[in-house]
Specification:
The protein is α/β, with parallel strands linked by helices. The protein contains 7 helices and 5 strands; from the N terminus they run βαβαβαββαααα. It has helices spanning 18-29, 52-59, 79-91, 108-141, 154-165, 170-177, 181-194; strands at residues 3-9, 35-41, 66-69, 95-98, 103-104. A 5-stranded mixed sheet has the order 2-1-3-4-5, with helices on both faces.
């Protein structure tokens, strides 16, 4: 199939896809495509996986033989996004040409670059997992608890209130009872909200006798 689609994207409304479209159109004319359609996402960030014109192009991939972009990051800001589109194009038997970076997925060098991208994506996933595990380990070392908080029963809440009334600080109550500081605050705030307002006794003022 000798039909091609141009995809252009810029991240902000202050920018325009016009320059990309013009350059890619001029390149496409040298390839003698039978038809050329343009898809452009103006002011759409590359971190978004769903983009109106890119989604439309995805739904019509089978109509084309080639997808043309200026740079590979126009397809997405993460390696995973780029590979997903690449896989969809492969499944539809569509090649991707990245003009500014001389990438053609139908060539041996293009397939090699895809393999390198896949390896990079796996490396990125491993880094994220390592950072997540490291963050959890550090938080646990500092005493942070994970999972659903346990239910605070009536006796526990009553003891918190009693200790506070006895002059203990919130941090002391938290440490001595094994409760999160936020839980201690919540119990005391709930207690204040549920307690009826104290009635202030008024002492009658003796009447001033009238002047003689």
């Amino acid at each position: 199939m000798n039909r091609a689609a141009i995809y252009a994207r810029v991240s902000t409304q202050e920018q325009s896809c016009d320059l990309q479209v013009e350059r890619l159109t001029n390149w496409a004319k040298t390839q003698e495509f039978e038809a050329l359609d343009v898809y452009r996402d103006d002011g759409i960030s590359g971190i978004l996986d769903n983009r109106p014109q890119l989604d439309l192009l995805r739904s019509r991939l089978s109509e084309y033989g080639t997808v043309i972009v200026a740079k590979i990051d126009r397809l997405g800001r993460s390696t995973g996004m780029i590979l997903r589109f690449w896989d969809e194009a492969d499944a539809a038997n569509v090649r991707i040409v990245v003009v500014d970076q001389a990438i053609d997925t139908s060539t041996a060098s293009g397939r090699l670059q895809r393999t390198m991208l896949a390896a990079l994506a796996e490396f990125e996933r491993e880094l994220i997992l390592e950072r997540t595990r490291g963050g959890i380990a550090r938080a646990r070392a500092l005493g942070k608890k994970f999972g659903r908080p346990r239910e605070i029963s009536g006796p526990i809440a009553e003891e918190v209130v009693h200790r506070r009334a006895a002059g203990e600080s919130l941090r002391q109550i938290s440490q001595r009872m094994g409760l999160r500081l936020g839980a201690v605050r919540w119990i005391l705030q709930r207690e204040r909200a549920e307690s009826p307002p104290r009635q202030t006794a008024t002492v009658p003022t003796p009447e001033t006798p009238p002047p003689a």
